[in-house]
Design brief:
43% of the residues are buried. The protein has 395 residues and is α/β, with parallel strands linked by helices. Strands 2-8-7-6-5-3-4 form a 7-stranded mixed sheet, with helices on both faces.
Length: 395
Amino acid sequence: MNNMYASLRRFFLLDPDVTFLNHGSFGATPHPVFEKYQEWQRLLEKEPVEFLGRRASEFLAQARQSIAPELGCKPDDFTFVTNATTGMNVVIHSLPLTSDDEVLTTNHEYGAVDKTWQFYSRQKGFKIVRARFSLPIDSQEKWLEELWRHVTPKTRVISLSHITSPTALIFPVEKVTERAKQEGILTIIDGAHAPGQIPLNLEKLDPDFYTGNFHKWVCAPKGAGFLYVRSEYHSMIQPLVVSWGYDNPSSQRSTFLDYTEWWGTRDISAFLSVPEAYHFLKVHHWDEVRQQCHQLLKDTCKELQTYLGAEPVATDPDIWNAQMLSLKIPNLHPKDIPEVSRKLWETYRIEVPLIEWEGSSLIRISLQAYNRWEDIKKLENALQNLLSSSSMQGE
């Protein structure tokens, strides 16, 4: 890992004085990709009307054509969105749900998506059902059984993360999509953390709707995400922002692309830079990078279990984790999270999220090519000092 760190850390623009263990929040972009992003921005500013008014659709189509093999889908089955939350909003906004329907999700979902479901539930009257799982999670089969206990004749939609945000778990969504199709239930997958962290083949995974981010683990510029919709559901998608693509009789495309591509004036440079981000990953053998990050993650799990008494949310990181890991910290009370977070940043310059989840205190560690074992030891020492202080013990 140290050899990898030495060769790849130099590409990232991160502050060298910060121990950055939070790639999962917003990602980090290497300078060759960032330079391509700025090239697109300069081209836009050189002639804005030519760029946006006459060539934007052409540029976006070329980018989709380049990216489609990375996602394992057809170019016209996905559109660019600024982030996965926006993609989820587009889908949830479009669903024809009523007060007779139920939506099944879990208690591991991203907070903004939970709020989106709450918002539309209050508007349309459908019921939200949240599955909870026995911890630590061990068997995928047991996980699926516990999820399916909440399926009823009223279940119309199952909405899951591919990799969860608070608990950093890889859910076996392919098992869910297969079973859901047999029972006529729509599947919506929030893949915010999946592209670039785990292999992705949407046609094989076969969800009805899937949204993800490029700016996290693909390392594209901020504000680059996508929404995939199975072709048979293109006509279901309604515009979240009504603009020129609506009711366009001269269009030769599906309404899905017309409704989602043009939302008024916006900088699409981040979208157009995604092919360069995938190129960077290929050139630098990212499959090996991911494997080394995963090994460092397993070593981190053992280290923090041994010296902090931390408890993993799932039993086997080879099954449930890739480059992210969440651990319970038993001797950190949730009320002390803000103070410990502040001191980790202000005193130790460590960027890592502490999360209150289900009454427990979690630490979520995200590892990328620029991380090394010294980063983990610095975190461990900082936490030992903070958790042993009298203020954290309630004295």
